[in-house]
Design goal:
Strand order of the largest sheet of chain A: 1-2-12-3-13-17-15-16
Number of strands of chain A: 19
Shape of chain A: globular
Helix content of chain A: 25-40%
Structural class of chain A: alpha+beta
Oligomer: homotrimer
Chain lengths: 305, 305, 305
């Protein structure tokens, strides 16, 4: 599977939760340049009214696909202290990068018990966001890099745009740190072109029961439990599609699906995404075959659902 | 107190959170068959638009009664693993039942440290829900069975329908696993026939200060705290009614009341329900006298409030 | 800085979460008596429709200021047990006061391991709220008392009313115990005179990086993370104002800002407030200079934003 160039572009953009403006700008530019070549040119909603989120409406939607644009990372406190943003893997020596009013920053993460520090020789402005230094590694079987969660969720969402006739494709913010954009995006969607079902395009974990190269994961549950009727329908359609699929049953973890579950609308939802090794580290690793299955399953489901 | 036959019927239906369709179907049939004999025939709202919830509107409501229809249980993972749904008591050897595409399942719960397994000889489909095998025991003083939480909350709600003139009676889903139906039910109620107060018909715990046969429990607080003014009014009315009542003050636990508290409406709420021993086990045990008090207090309050 | 008399008045009112009616009544009376002398007389919204909250609308609002009126405390259980309301400091021997149907209560907090008791010789009615005995200490540098959190957040909000031309000033309830009033206040605000930004007038903590007399705190994050663009703008305006400001970066703690973050509106928010020592104890201590900076910064920002 050849990886589109745009995936490498978005892997190089930093977007720690709360500071998604650069990647949002990239998405808006990408959509603006490409949309006239797509099967259907979507209506594009973005700007301050939507904070840094972007909504693309194609035709008459029945389903929305949500992909979050933020990543985990760190925020600089004082006296060299760091506070995590979301749940990054805490490995001493991991290289972190960022930028403040004094210039570019490249330093190492220092873990001492429960406390986190950076080793940058000068003071860093309070509130500066740091994230893993990027190192993209692609071979014939795998892609390995930082931020695969959730650049590889954005990727199928953007590929889907090329052929989508009816549906919403929505790029969200804040997901890694408790959420907060879904609650205002959903009312806008329901007022503009309402849906009954939501698919969460995000990356999950390799587990005892989920392995590389075995197919895209359909999650029956994580910490939260979607309605059985809808999950059964997704599984049935996936089987009809003959696209390889793995079923996950987890007790932990959450996604933008959580905020669909607790929204003021009777919406069904399902998390569908490739599984990765080395979660929330600079070495997240995903099978290209699984990613390809993910792209194909989204295309199939948006037609079939 | 003679137990109505319909209580035994609903005690025999499985409805682990997210899979409430069978009990919902039962409620719709029950209501359809009986409603013309009730004092007021309610407007019935149900179907896909409401997922598996059911709303009954009687007259001009001031108050809504909420009773959840789901129960705790387990979900099958892989390699014989189980993941809890809600917070079931974890006792090795407890008998579990369910059904998958290969047929009926009856097995035992195996607890090994933090991990849960089943001992069923064949593989069970991923995502299959299991719940406690039912064993209903009734004597002159007590009812003991699985699923009393919340079949005994549904029971007073259904009895109330026989005489109710003004009010909503609402059957909800997902409550045992974080909720998610209240947020879409409340806007529907507020748009259709708005209320200012909500009563939660659910089952609580025997504690140091709450005992069998001493009356239905009015909860002053659990993990969450309803507004004092409303609780004071409930307590005053309960005293006027001369129905035996026990006041609970807890630091833990939640109910559908939580989602009323955090809803976009200024609604008062109160949890009112009998207390049980052996919570979330196959041996939940409730005093028939307390249950009778519960039935009577709901009837009294829906008139008086 | 001379402290207005009204601060002492509100410090003497008890208002444990869920029982805010007395302080709410005080605010309504205060506003009613003073508003004709203010630059702009606000529209006042209060009463049962808003539970015990109060909303003041001045002119054409762009920004809302939220100050919670409740305090932490304790609730009486049974057998002399107490359950915390919010997160009070648990120091054996602390003097607690309250009132039930039998009369006034003054007793001591008894801490035994994880369990809390009172030592009042007679039985106290279940559900009675107790809070720290008040002891107000003011010198030239500091104010020290119980309930500074959040009487010192109400104080700048009320001072602001004297000069405010455009904005909402809103007094909220339940904040110390998980919230629940913001979700119904925000829709009312957005329907009546919508805003794009919210400031949280509340009290924070002295930490390694935040000290007395160094300025009012602008919080870049607590447990939750507001949008960077908005925080950057606040910091820039604070610098222009030349009012001393300290920037906080915390991993813990929450405020009414949490419910703005998770609201169904794309609202930016920022917590701005003086820092205190001895948090949630009877000895909360705040620099008068920091409080003065807080008053001035709110006045400046409500014009500039």
């Amino acid at each position: 599977m050849p990886i589109s160039d745009f995936l490498k572009e978005i892997l190089l953009i930093q977007s720690v939760s709360g500071d998604e403006s650069l990647v949002a700008e990239w998405v808006v530019n990408y959509v603006t340049q490409r949309k006239s070549n797509w099967k259907v040119a979507p209506e594009v909603y973005h700007g301050e009214e939507f904070h840094d989120c972007i909504l693309l409406r194609f035709g008459n939607p029945r389903t929305a696909v949500f992909a979050h644009m933020d990543t985990i990372g760190f925020m600089v406190r004082y006296a060299n202290q760091l506070v995590p943003v979301g749940g990054p893997e805490l490995i001493s020596g991991t290289r972190l990068v960022g930028k403040d009013c004094f210039g570019e920053i490249s330093c190492k993460l220092v873990v001492e018990g429960d406390e986190l520090f950076h080793d940058f020789p000068r003071k860093i402005e309070r509130g500066t966001r740091l994230s893993f230094e990027q190192d993209i590694r692609v071979d014939s079987e795998f892609i390995q890099a930082a931020y695969l969660d959730n650049r590889l969720g954005m990727y199928p969402a953007l590929k889907l745009c090329e052929t989508l006739e009816d549906g919403w494709v929505v790029f969200t913010t804040y997901e890694e740190h408790g959420g907060g954009s879904m609650p205002f995006l959903l009312p806008f969607i329901q007022k503009t072109a309402p849906i009954k079902q939501a698919l969460i395009s995000d990356i999950t974990w390799i587990t005892d029961g989920v392995h590389h190269h075995q197919g895209v994961v359909v999650s029956i549950r994580d910490k939260f439990i979607p309605r059985k009727k809808f999950i059964d329908r997704i599984i049935q359609l996936a089987q009809q599609s003959e696209i390889p699929v793995q079923l996950e049953v987890e007790g932990y973890g959450g996604s933008d699906g959580r905020e669909v579950q607790f929204s003021p609308y009777a919406l069904d939802w399902c998390f569908i995404g490739a599984a990765e090794d080395h979660v929330h580290s600079p070495d997240e690793k995903v099978s290209l075959k699984d990613l390809d299955n993910m792209v194909n399953l989204y295309e199939y489901l948006l037609k079939a659902l």
